[in-house]
Design a protein that fits this description.
The chain has 13 helices and 19 strands. It has four domains: 90 residues, Rossmann fold (3-Layer(aba) Sandwich); 74 residues, Dna Ligase, domain 1, CATH 3.30.1490; 127 residues, ATP-grasp fold, B domain (D-amino Acid Aminotransferase, Chain A, domain 1, 2-Layer Sandwich); 79 residues, ATP-grasp fold, B domain (D-amino Acid Aminotransferase, Chain A, domain 1, 2-Layer Sandwich). The chain is globular and about 60 Å long. A hairpin with a 2-residue loop joins strand 12 and strand 13. It has 404 residues and is of the alpha+beta class. Helix 2 crosses helix 3, helix 4 crosses helix 5 and helix 6 crosses helix 7. The strands form four sheets. Strands 13-12-9-10-11-14-18-16 form an eight-stranded antiparallel beta sheet.
């Protein structure tokens, strides 16, 4: 039997990567997310919601019979349980501190202040009056969002006091917000932050044994409006080299300050008029296939490198440069899909890796207010970042959706 790894969440490709490294693999996954082909790969399956705390007890019971060597998660809703398991069982895994400091935005903001890293005015808010007080003190507009949220769910830009009550009530009444955050944080809270204008990027990195390896910087596109849903990403960034080095140093210092030890990270930054500001950070890869883009552009498999580390085979991140990659998300208005065309043709265009459109004729769609509501995407590569972006944009334009 090889080294025993328990993975909280995941998908077929990374299960296979773990098995190729010789792991005896136990997977915790929701029943609805288990595919038939997964059963031929993994050695032991536990079906559960990833953040449910019963997972810790189940893994502990399994550990008593056949001890695990390490635990990992590459999904936002699994990383806290993975850290709690590592802590309880004393096995290899990313520790609790960096996970809590990034999953809880209030804790992260307090940490940034204590560490002397550039931050913004913020406050944990309990009611709409405290939101109004914050906006009046620091100036409008402000951001109001869940402190423990994911996927851009209920992130709002508020322009004045007259908007606060309605937005606050909408967030607190949203069952998705409470369901997503509730298992990890039984008493979900909100954070108000001063809105900062500026270009948005993210910094992707892999850490092993506390040594941080920056992979690259990604440019972000935001859908217009007040909810900050990503419309796409382009890699590598076209920022000047000295700015890229500044951001890399900033993220390395931040990861060191939170005590990140094992695995990928994704740190979102706004380039404000007064300098770069960390918006959020995550001890996992970026969503929206950013980990896949990094492999196309830099030749770095961020998930594979992490698994190699747990297998005792990490030998450093060897970064190259292989062109550009871009992802673009479909945007629609609200309605019912009465016609959909051009998807297969788009997938065959030059540079297109994948056209993944998750809607069909008859489906009801809405204007995207968080990441899960986006109806699909095109991922493309090219000899340069500009080529990749052009390939993705052209393919997306080729897809026609008619609504009624």
């Amino acid at each position: 039997m090889g080294l025993r790894l328990v993975m909280i969440g995941g998908w077929t490709d990374i299960y296979r990567k773990a098995k190729d490294l010789g792991f005896d693999l136990t997977v915790v996954q929701r029943k609805c997310d288990v595919k038939p082909e997964d059963l031929a790969v993994i050695d032991q399956l536990v079906t559960s919601a990833l953040p449910d705390k019963v997972v810790i007890s189940i893994v502990e019971a399994l550990h008593k019979e056949h001890p695990f060597d390490s635990v990992v998660s590459f999904q936002e809703l699994g990383i806290l349980n993975a850290a709690l398991i590592a802590d309880r069982l004393g096995i290899q895994g990313n520790p609790l501190k960096p996970v809590l400091l990034t999953r809880d935005k209030c804790l992260m903001r307090k940490h940034l202040l204590a560490a002397g890293i550039a931050s913004i005015p913020f406050v944990e808010v309990s009611d709409s009056d405290s939101v109004v007080d914050f906006g009046n003190e620091h100036g409008w507009p402000i951001i109001l969002k869940p402190a423990n949220g994911v996927g851009s769910i209920q992130v709002h830009k508020i322009h004045g006091a007259d908007e606060v009550a309605a937005v606050h009530a909408e967030i607190m009444a949203d069952p998705v917000f409470r369901e997503v955050a509730g298992l990890d944080f039984p008493d979900p809270k909100l954070i108000a932050e001063k809105f900062i204008e500026g270009r948005e990027v993210s910094v992707e990195a892999v850490t092993w044994a506390g040594v941080h390896h920056v992979v690259g910087v990604t440019d972000k596109l935001i859908i217009g409006g007040s909810n900050f849903v990503e419309a796409g990403h382009t890699m590598p960034s076209d920022l000047p080299a000295d700015t890229v080095r500044q951001l890399e140093g900033m993220v390395e210092a931040f990861l060191e300050s939170i005590g990140h030890v094992y695995g990928p990270s994704h740190t979102e930054i706004i380039l404000s008029s007064s300098g770069p500001i960390i918006v959020e950070s995550h001890t996992r890869t970026g969503g929206d296939r950013i980990f896949e883009m990094a492999e196309y552009v830099y030749g770095v498999d961020m998930i594979g490198e992490t698994l190699k580390g747990f297998a005792g085979k990490f030998d450093g991140v060897k970064k190259g440069s292989q062109g550009g990659a871009a992802i673009r998300y479909m945007q629609t208005l609200a309605g019912t899909v009465v016609a959909l065309a051009g998807v297969e043709e788009a997938a065959k265009l030059d540079g297109v890796v994948r056209a993944d459109i998750g809607i069909k004729v008859g489906a009801k769609v809405k204007e995207s207010r968080h990441s899960a509501e986006r109806p699909g995407y095109v991922l493309a590569i090219g000899s340069t970042r500009q080529d990749a972006a052009s390939n993705a944009d052209r393919a997306l334009r080729n897809i026609m959706v008619e609504l009624a």
